[in-house]
Design goal:
40% helix, DenD (chains A, B), alpha/beta, 13 helices, 2 domains, 3-stranded mixed beta sheet, Epimerase_deHydtase (chains A, B), Rossmann fold, carbohydrate metabolism (chains A, B), homodimer, UDP-galactose 4-epimerase, domain 1
Chain lengths: 328, 328
C-alpha cells in the first residue's frame, strides 16, 4: 500500500500522517510507502519508508512526477483557505483549481491506473439561500472563490470517476473545530478561537451574534472521515462522488455553554463581543446545518455534541489539562 | 467598440462575424476592431479593421496576449464538441476547461478592466434524471465530460463576475438545428442530418426512436442569443450568470412531420432507421425540454416551431431553394 498525501504539512495532514503511522495499514494492506508533499517539505515520520517533498502543485511539472509513482491511495488536502482565496483571487485559483486539475489530469494520463483519490472539499460549495437543515440533494451553489474552486474540483472528480480514470471521493468537510495552533486566514477562524484561547486562559474575540449557527467536526473526526473515504466501497456513491458529512450543529451560544460546562464560567467570560460586519456578511452565506443521511449510511461518524469536541481538543492538544480551570 | 471572438472559424463564429459586420455596431457603439481567433487563422471580413489570429487557447501564453488588448466584448466560443470531449478526455479538458480558465484568468489579471464575456455553455450541463420540462432552477448535474467542462466554466465566470473581474453571461445553448455543412463529432449530429440531407435529396440515418424529444434552436437564433447577451443589462442576473435559453421542443417524429410539411413526403422518405445503442445511451441522459422563463423575460427569443427552423435553413443555406422538392 503506497500512499500520497498533498498538503501533508497542514494541520489535518499532520494528524492524518500520524494516524496512518499508528495504524500501519490501510484497507487491510500494510503501508509500504508514504509520500508527503507540501510547499515546504513536511517531516517524514520514523518507521515507514517514504519521501517528503517540497512541491507546488500549481507548477505543471509537479503532479505528473507524483502520479508516475502510481500510489494506491491519494489524499489531496493541499489548498489555500477560504479567506486567502477570497482576498487573492489568482493564488486561490492557482492552488485550489489548477493544483486539483493538474493532479486529476496526471492520474488520468497514466494508463491502467485508477487510484482512490480522497479530495477535501468543503461545505463552502453551498451558498445562501439555504434551508436550516441541508438535505443530501441540496444543489451546490458556491458564493465564494473557495467554494467555487472546490465545486469545480468535485465536478472533475465525478467525471473522471465515471470514466474509470480515477476512483474519487470528495468530502465536504464541516468547519474544523477546535482548530489547534495559530489562527489561519479562514473567515471561520473565530469558531475555534472562542474555545481554544479561553481554554488556556487567553481572551478571544467573537465577531458575530450568539445566535449564529454552524456545522462543526473535530480534527479527530476529520481524520476519521479521510480514512473512511480511503477504505469505503465507492460503488454505492453512483455518479455523485461528493458527500455532505456528519458534524455537530451548534449556535455560538451553544458553543459557549459547552465551554462553560467543560472549563467553567471563567473561560466563557474571556470571550469579548466585537461585531464585525465584514465577517458577518461572509458568515450569512454559509450553511447552518445538515442532514447527512448518505454519509452516515456509508459509515462516516462525527462527535455527538460540542462538549465532546472540546474534550477531544483537551485530550489531543492540551495533554488532558484545562489551564484556565487551574488558574486561581 | 473592440470585440474578440474565440472559435471564430467555427460554424456559429462565422455567422456571428457576418452579423456583426452587417450591423457595424454593438451596444450602440460603432465596431472599431474585431479580433478573430481560432486554431487556424479565421478569414477576416472586409470593411472592419481587425486581426485574424491562429492560437491554441490551451497554450498558457495565448490568453494573456488576447486580454492585454482589452477588448470591450469577448465572445468565447472556442470548444471541442461533446463527442470528441467524451472520446478524448485530455483534449476536452485542455480546450474546454483550460482554454476557458486561461481566458478568465487573463482577463482578471488586467487591472481596471471588466469586459463583457459571453460564454457558450450548453444544455449538456444537465444530466438525467430530468423532468420533461426543466425549470430555471434545475440544478446542473452533468453526466458527460463536455457538460462537466462547461459547468466548471460557468462556475468560474459566476465567481469572477461577483468579484467584478469580468461581466459574464453563460448561454446554455440548445442543440443547434439545422447545423449546416459537414457532420461534426457531436453525438447530437443526427438531429440536424435527418433534416439537412433529405432537403438536398440525400439519405440520412436516424439512430434513435421517433419518440425521442429534444430542445433546438437555429444557427440564426444562436447568433441572436449571442448579440442579446452582449447587449443586455447584467444586473438582472444576480449571482447566477447562466441562462437556459428559449428553443423549440420537438420529438424526432415532429421534426420529420415538419420536414414533410416544408419539403414533401419524398424528403421524409429519405430517412433510414438504424437504431444505435451507443447513441441512444448518450441521448437518454439529455434534456427533453425547458421552461426558460428567465431568459425570455430578458429578451432572448427563438423560433416558434420546427417548420420555421427548417425554413430558416432553406433561406440561409440553400438560397431559398429546396432541392429535394425540385427533383422528379
Amino acid at each position: 500500500m503506497q500512499i500520497l498525501i498533498t498538503g501533508a504539512a497542514g494541520m489535518i495532514g499532520r494528524k492524518l500522517v500520524a494516524a496512518l503511522v499508528a495504524r500501519g495499514e490501510l484497507r487491510g494492506d500494510p503501508i509500504t510507502g508514504l509520500t508527503l508533499v507540501d510547499r515546504d517539505a513536511p517531516v517524514l515520520p520514523d518507521g515507514i519508508p517514504g519521501a517528503a517533498l517540497a512541491a507546488d502543485l500549481s507548477d505543471p511539472a509537479a503532479a505528473p512526477a507524483l502520479a508516475e509513482a502510481r500510489p494506491d491511495v491519494i489524499f489531496h488536502l493541499a489548498a489555500v483557505v477560504s479567506g486567502e482565496a477570497e482576498a487573492d483571487t489568482a493564488k486561490g485559483y492557482a492552488v485550489n483549481l489548477h493544483g486539483t486539475v493538474a493532479l486529476c489530469e496526471a492520474i488520468a494520463a497514466q494508463p491502467d491506473y485508477c487510484p482512490r483519490l480522497v479530495f477535501t472539499s468543503s461545505i463552502a460549495v453551498f451558498g445562501a439561500p439555504l434551508p436550516d437543515v441541508i438535505p443530501d440533494d441540496q444543489p451546490p451553489r458556491p458564493l465564494t472563490s473557495y467554494g467555487t474552486q472546490k465545486r469545480m474540483g468535485e465536478l472533475m472528480i465525478d467525471d473522471l470517476s465515471r470514466k474509470g480514470a480515477l476512483d474519487g471521493v470528495s468530502l465536504r468537510l464541516p468547519t474544523i473545530c477546535i482548530r489547534p495552533g495559530a489562527p489561519n486566514a479562514a473567515a471561520s477562524g473565530f469558531y475555534s478561537s472562542i474555545l481554544r484561547e479561553p481554554l488556556i486562559g487567553q481572551p478571544a474575540v467573537l465577531p458575530v451574534p450568539d445566535t449564529v449557527r454552524h456545522w462543526f467536526a473535530s480534527p479527530r473526526a476529520a481524520v476519521g472521515f479521510l480514512l473512511r473515504a480511503a477504505e469505503m466501497e465507492t460503488g454505492a456513491l453512483g455518479q455523485d462522488r461528493s458527500l455532505n458529512l456528519p458534524g455537530v450543529g451548534a449556535s455560538v451560544a451553544e458553543e459557549i455553554a459547552a465551554l462553560e460546562r467543560v472549563a467553567g464560567a471563567k473561560a466563557a467570560g474571556l470571550i469579548r463581543r466585537e461585531p464585525d460586519a465584514a465577517v458577518q456578511a461572509i458568515i450569512d452565506t454559509w450553511p447552518r446545518g445538515f442532514d447527512p443521511a448518505r454519509a452516515r449510511a456509508l459509515g462516516f461518524e462525527a462527535e455527538p455534541d460540542m462538549d465532546t469536541i472540546i474534550r477531544a481538543h483537551v485530550e489531543d492538544e492540551l495533554g488532558g489539562r484545562i489551564p484556565v480551570a487551574e488558574q486561581g
